[in-house]
Recover the amino acids of this structure.
């Protein structure tokens, strides 16, 4: 078929990027990314950067077509386990699912990635931890999990830990205020309904 004659993964990446940015042909861009990733296979270290870039272009193309629901399973087919996802891909996924208000999609994947020993030594670890806190755990009200994650993280120095714990605490306070305002509003609605019924009877 045509794939046998297809160029190397690196030139597929170039084509995919052109299709995404210049031609805005998103479906064709995704096809190039898939062909490139399949060519590289799983666990090819030398080509890790090309593969990561192919996935980044693919994610953007899928998002442009409003096929964001497929993004996570799409990248996982090329990395097999969440722990192996490159930091850049995890970052994009967190931001994407946060933007479409579906942060829970990244709950388990993010947690697996951050618990992995190898990932803890990566320079991007701190910023991804922060991203996961702000865009996944806190919007979902997972305050205990957030605190555990921060306290159990050797990759953070004391100052960073304190900053994160403060952020969690502030978020928890906001959450509590919103809950309170919400139940007060409901009480007012009930009271209003009672006065209306009172008038009717």
């Amino acid at each position: 078929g045509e794939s046998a004659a297809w160029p190397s993964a690196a030139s597929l990446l170039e084509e995919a990027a052109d299709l995404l940015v210049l031609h805005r042909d998103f479906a064709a861009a995704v096809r190039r990314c898939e062909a490139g990733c399949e060519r590289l296979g799983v666990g090819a270290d030398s080509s890790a950067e090309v593969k990561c870039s192919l996935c980044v272009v693919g994610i953007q193309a899928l998002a442009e077509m409003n096929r964001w629901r497929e993004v996570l399973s799409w990248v996982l087919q090329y990395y097999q386990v969440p722990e192996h996802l490159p930091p850049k891909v995890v970052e994009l996924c967190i931001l994407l699912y946060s933007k479409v208000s579906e942060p829970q999609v990244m709950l388990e994947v993010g947690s697996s990635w951050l618990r992995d020993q190898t990932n803890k030594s990566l320079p991007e670890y701190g910023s991804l931890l922060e991203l996961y806190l702000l865009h996944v755990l806190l919007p979902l009200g997972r305050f205990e999990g957030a605190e555990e994650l921060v306290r159990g993280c050797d990759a953070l120095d004391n100052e960073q830990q304190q900053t994160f714990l403060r952020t969690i605490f502030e978020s928890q306070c906001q959450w509590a205020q919103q809950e309170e305002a919400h139940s007060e509003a409901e009480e007012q609605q009930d009271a209003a309904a009672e006065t209306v019924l009172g008038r009717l009877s």
